[in-house]
Design a protein that fits this description.
By secondary structure, the protein is mostly helical. The chain has helices spanning 2-35, 37-57, 62-84, 87-95, 97-102, 108-137, 142-169, 176-203, 209-240. The chain is built from 9 helices and no strands.
Length: 241
């Protein structure tokens, strides 16, 4: 009787253990990030600088900025996330923590998901919070700013999840930043297109439900597949290191 009961208990224990491990990895990454504030602030400063300098370098006309503002903010957010991806696994790889995570009894994809979630909280979420201020700077209207923030809230986690695959594949390589950009930017293009298209549709008064549904589908697809792909890429990178 006891032997028959054990298989029913193990999945529950594995789930609880996996969630506890995710919580511990997530909290650790937040603590480490706040100790290295320079790495934390660089993407945000880059985001603000790109949006601020663009009108000076192209055109300060209100009509132009209102039309191109969503694209400016989305491209700046994409590049800011890309700038921070190299640090997603790099510090843990350098100090040996990553090897210990791979050896843990919990599934590696859960730990990768926790690290990716921490990366989004530290990088993507601040970009979403800054977007309304910068949206006013490029003369976006109130409804367009709200839709822009919503698209960034849905789209930036997709950028982090897809980026985790590239960061895992290029781990330990020289000139990893350049190779990471070449691998990841083509995969970012659909998110960029639908993110800016949603804001453009809102500015014209059209329905944005279809655009948001597609962004949500991208998020669900990335959330389902990216942690598995990134964990497999990590194992390959560590075996070749």
């Amino acid at each position: 009787m006891n032997a028959e009961a054990r298989p029913a208990v193990r999945p529950h224990r594995n789930l609880v253990g996996g969630l506890s491990a995710m919580k511990a990895v997530f909290a650790r990454d937040l603590r480490v990030a706040f100790r290295q504030r320079q790495d934390l602030l660089n993407p945000l400063l880059f985001f603000v600088m790109v949006v601020t300098l663009f009108p000076l370098g192209v055109s300060p006309e209100v009509s132009f900025l209102r039309e191109a503002g969503a694209g400016i903010l989305w491209v700046a957010a994409l590049l800011s996330v890309l700038l921070s991806l190299d640090h997603l696994f790099r510090h843990d790889f350098d100090d040996g923590t990553l090897e210990q995570l791979v050896l843990q009894p919990q599934p590696l994809f859960l730990l990768v998901l926790a690290k990716t979630l921490a990366h989004w909280v530290l990088t993507g979420l601040p970009l979403v919070l800054l977007a309304p201020v910068l949206g006013v700077m490029v003369h976006l209207e109130g409804n367009s700013i709200w839709v822009l923030c919503l698209t960034l809230l849905v789209g930036t986690p997709v950028l982090s999840l897809i980026g985790s695959i590239g960061a895992a594949l290029t781990l330990g390589l020289r000139s990893a930043g350049v190779l990471l950009s070449l691998l990841i930017i083509p995969l970012y293009i659909p998110v960029l297109i639908f993110g800016t298209g949603t804001v453009a549709a809102a500015a014209e008064g059209a329905a944005v439900g279809g655009y948001l549904a597609l962004l949500g589908a991208f998020l669900m697809l990335a959330l389902t597949l990216a942690p598995f792909a990134a964990s497999a890429a990590l194992k390959i990178s560590l075996s070749n290191a």
